[in-house]
Each structure stands twice: as C-alpha cells, then as structure tokens.
Amino acid sequence: MTVYLVGAGPGAADLLTVRAVRILERAEVVVHDRLVETEVLDLVARGAEVHDVGKTPGGPDNQSAINALLVATARTGRTVVRLKGGDPFLFGRGGEELEALAEAGIDAEVVPGITSAFFAPLAAGIPVTHRGRSCGVAVVTARGCERDPELARLARADLTIVILMGVARRGAIARELIEGGLDPATPVAVVERASTPTERVQRSALGDLGSLRVAAPAVIVVGAVAALDLARGAVAAASAR
Ligand SMILES: C[S@@+](CC[C@H](N)C(=O)[O-])C[C@H]1O[C@@H](n2cnc3c(N)ncnc32)[C@H](O)[C@@H]1O
Fold first, then answer.
1. Alpha helices, DSSP H, located in 42-195
2. Whether residue 96 sits in one domain with residue 18
3. How many domains does the chain have?
4. Is 84 a catalytic site residue?
C-alpha cells in the first residue's frame, strides 16, 4: 500500500514531472486540491475515482477528513494519488498528510512539483536571485500561521521576498515591510494565475501594492528583482502591463 503525494505544479499540464504523469496514468483513486487545473486532471487514468477536496479560502478546515479519506482508500488496496497544487511540501500541508499516513502504517512517496513561488516570478521574467540586486530569497505565507507573519524582520533591500496567499492582506503586507525599513519605492510584481491562459503580471511600487486590483491565486514578489523583466530583455516600468 503506497499513497503518492504528487505535486501538480502551478497549472499548466506540461509543467508536471514525467514521474507525476506516469503515476497519474495508473491512478485508481485521485484526491485533488482546488488549484489543480482541468488539463492536469485530464491526465488521470480513465475510470479512476476522483475526489475534489479543495478548501475554500476562509472555509472550514477539512484536513482531518482528507487524511481519513487517504487512509480509507489506501486500505482498499488501490493506487491512491493525492494531487496537490505546486509542490506538496510548500504550504501544501503535505507533511501533515504524510504523518497521518505513517500513523496508519501506510507507506507514502512524495513526487515534487514546480512551486508557484518560483514559477510565478519566472513567468514574469524575474530571477529571484540576481547578482548585485538580490543575495537571497525568502518564501513566506501571509496566512495560515498561528500569528501574523513578522514580515518586518525580512525587510532588507538585498533580499527578495516571495509571498503566497497574500492577496487579501496586500495592504497590510506593504505597511509591515515599510515599517520594517523597506523604501516605499521598492519594486513589486504580482503574478496572478501563473502558467494558465489567464496569467497576468502587474508591477508597482511597494507603497502602491494595497491599491492594485488583484484576484487570487497570486504570488507577490517584493525586492529590486521585481523591476526586472528578463523575458523581455528590459527593465519593466513600474506600472501595470
Ligand atoms: C495553499 S498555497 C499552495 C502552494 C503550492 N503548494 C505551491 O507550491 O505553489 C496556495 C497559494 O499558492 C499560490 N499559487 C498557487 N498556484 C498559483 C498560480 N498558478 N499562480 C499564482 N499563484 C499561485 C497563491 O499564492 C495561492 O494563494
């Protein structure tokens, strides 16, 4: 009995790993998240039992029901795939699911996925580290911690900050970072629905982040590199494109 925790990547099916595709093609049960695109689900073996267990932001926490479903379906002896957006171990609660499976005596294998934290900046032509502009990158969530993230302590001009689940708190995020010492003129890029046909990139200054119109899912990139658009070979203007 093995349950496969598979990363579905940011959206586009051709961003899955070959290993993920091979496992989906022989899946008998698939338990998937809300952010998994239809074109990825189309790769699932015909006849497989498919469960959409997506959580609505702010909705009830159904994690224990998901864990119970994984354990129950694995015990039927079928090939069970838990398909998760991006990478299973980055803000995906993959670790909790592994713990639940281990407690039930069920083996699990994790298949990594391309995380939106790195794909979304890349889609906008932003290298998250770049000599002379950024000596490192911090990936943080704006939600889901026991207390508000202390973003202010990450406020360093030479660090790139990539924020997931930050759309609703974008005004507060900007305030915290500016209070922490970042210049309100620090470049910001917001990448919505990266890798999907409706992908959109907006650029602004940190001080204007709160007034951008943004819809989730989106990744917010803060730091000097956010002004770059190397895909276009130019430094982007600090305005929506
Ligand atoms: C619960 S987290 C899961 C992250 C996922 N495990 C990963 O590695 O990408 C969901 C957040 O990921 C980000 N996200 C996921 N897919 C995205 C996409 N295609 N474009 C932009 N942001 C995305 C958003 O910030 C969203 O609120």
1. 63-74, 94-103, 116-123, 170-179
2. yes
3. 2
4. no
